[in-house]
């Protein structure tokens, strides 16, 4: 009996000894933030807005760190560590094999979904795959969603799986799903870093791999510091040290994962999209490298606030919410000179730690729903930006007629102005052309009974008609 006990202890002990733990330290002010950052901890998440920083420390140093920071809270082990469970390959998250099955079945059962296609090969020789979902004509604008650049952040993978499922299931019945797939090519990279993710499948030494598996110099390269725009600008949130969790690699795009991904993205030229990460509940936009505003700051900000209206994610540049980082995917997507600026955000899904929902489907579903709302609104905004279905006006020599919508698609009031030399009448039509309301000129309070979806506001004056598309999304 004693022998068996000792053996069991030996088997269990190494796992516990290697485990990293999350500690939540209260931090309200910039200086408290700076102090914690400069102590050299690995910062997992944190928000000035919510007043905390989560650091990841090895089990051996937990006691010491807790003593150093009064009010610190040790977060549950399963938030930082993937624990083998009966629920599947990675608890309720989709593991590498679960993903392979999901995406190939989705393609098999749906004409709008292409079979997963390789855009390159990872460091260890795995296929880097994308999936395209569309019912739009060739040449329709592309919108891209990526996940698992950091291998221990499966919450983002759950979101893109839910998104693909929703789009394909609701196509034909939900006006927005229909509109999006009829007008855009939706691209998804479910796993940017397949080597790291495979390594994390319940693994007796660690399930804490964030970086890729190029261990030539240390223990991997942080792919989200390896992109070529302002790579290695400084050492804030990006490290030259091969063992650091934010190690940026020996050169920009030194890693096969980032090189292949950027070349492929340049070939499809998306208007924008989301690079999904976890955790903390933020919606980040460029520039991250020096916390300066881009020329599209007001668009990033207003869209960001609209998208976060339901889930209350903190919206801003990385440097406003946490600290500057360079060489990440959103800065590259926006700023690289190989393409026009692409409007990408990094949502940090509001998961419990990295693996915190592994046994909690309720939280996974909640996160998915909150992010689905953002996905819809982002697509609608991006498609509006390029003027698809934009107002048309017939020639009428005596009258100049213009209809301008206010810029707040999540407001319950639709405001608009019409200029016309003759009296106008207004109507609201659904996508099938049915008149659903006849508002008066000026502001219109959207009735509660009007279902979420896409509508057209039409103004008629004399023999002239103009219309503008708008979205109701609650
Ligand atoms: Zn991440």
Polypeptide structure, described:
The protein has 474 residues and is α+β, with helices and mostly antiparallel strands. The protein folds into 3 domains: 74 residues, Alpha-Beta Plaits (2-Layer Sandwich); 297 residues, 3-Layer(aba) Sandwich (Aminopeptidase); 71 residues, Immunoglobulin-like (Sandwich). Helix content is 30%, strand content 23%. Strands 6, 7, 8, 9, 10, 11, 12, 13 and 14 form a 9-stranded mixed sheet that branches. Strands 2-3-1-4 form a 4-stranded antiparallel sheet. Helix 6 packs across helix 7, helix 6 packs across helix 13 and helix 7 packs across helix 13. The protein is globular. It binds zinc ion. Zinc ion binds next to loops.
């Amino acid at each position: 009996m004693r022998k068996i006990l000792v053996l069991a202890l030996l088997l269990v002990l190494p796992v516990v000894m290697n485990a990293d733990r999350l500690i939540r330290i209260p931090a309200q002010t910039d200086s408290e933030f700076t102090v914690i950052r400069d102590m050299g901890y690995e910062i997992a998440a944190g928000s000035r807005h919510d007043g905390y920083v989560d650091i990841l420390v090895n089990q051996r140093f937990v006691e010491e760190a807790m003593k150093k920071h009064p009010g610190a809270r040790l977060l549950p082990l399963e938030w930082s560590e993937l624990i083998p469970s009966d629920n599947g390959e990675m608890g309720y998250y989709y593991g590498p094999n679960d993903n392979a099955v999901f995406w190939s079945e989705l393609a098999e059962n749906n004409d709008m979904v292409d079979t997963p296609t390789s855009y390159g090969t990872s460091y260890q020789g795995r296929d880097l795959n994308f999936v395209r979902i569309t019912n739009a004509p060739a040449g329709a604008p592309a919108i891209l969603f990526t996940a698992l650049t950091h291998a221990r952040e499966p919450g983002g993978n759950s979101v893109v799986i839910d998104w693909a499922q929703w789009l394909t299931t609701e196509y034909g019945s939900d006006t927005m799903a229909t509109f999006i797939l009829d007008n855009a090519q939706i691209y998804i990279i479910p796993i940017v870093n397949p080597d790291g993710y495979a390594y994390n499948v319940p693994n007796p030494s660690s399930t804490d791999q964030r970086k890729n598996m190029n261990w030539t110099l240390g223990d991997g390269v942080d792919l989200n510091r390896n992109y070529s725009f302002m790579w290695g600008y400084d050492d804030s949130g990006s490290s030259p040290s091969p063992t650091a969790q934010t190690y940026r690699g020996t050169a920009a795009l030194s890693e096969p994962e980032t090189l292949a991904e950027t070349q492929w993205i340049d070939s499809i030229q998306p208007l924008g999209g989301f690079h999904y990460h976890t955790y903390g509940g933020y919606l980040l936009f460029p520039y991250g490298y020096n916390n300066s505003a881009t020329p599209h700051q007001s668009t990033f900000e207003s869209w960001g606030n609209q998208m976060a209206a339901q889930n209350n994610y903190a919206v801003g540049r990385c440097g406003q919410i946490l600290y500057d980082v360079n060489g990440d995917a959103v800065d590259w997507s926006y700023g690289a000179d190989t393409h026009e600026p692409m409007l990408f955000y990094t949502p940090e899904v509001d998961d419990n730690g990295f693996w915190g929902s592994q046994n909690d489907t309720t939280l996974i579903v909640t996160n998915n729903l909150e992010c689905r709302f953002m996905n819809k609104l982002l697509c609608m905004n991006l498609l509006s930006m390029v003027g698809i279905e934009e107002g048309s006006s017939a020639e009428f020599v005596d009258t100049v007629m213009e209809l301008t919508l206010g810029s707040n698609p999540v407001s319950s009031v639709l405001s608009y102005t019409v200029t016309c030399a003759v009296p106008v009448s207004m109507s609201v039509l659904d996508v099938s052309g049915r008149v659903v309301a006849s508002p008066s000129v000026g502001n219109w309070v959207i009735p509660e009974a009007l279902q979420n979806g896409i509508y057209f506001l039409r103004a008629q004056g004399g023999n002239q008609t103009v219309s503008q598309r708008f979205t109701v999304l609650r």
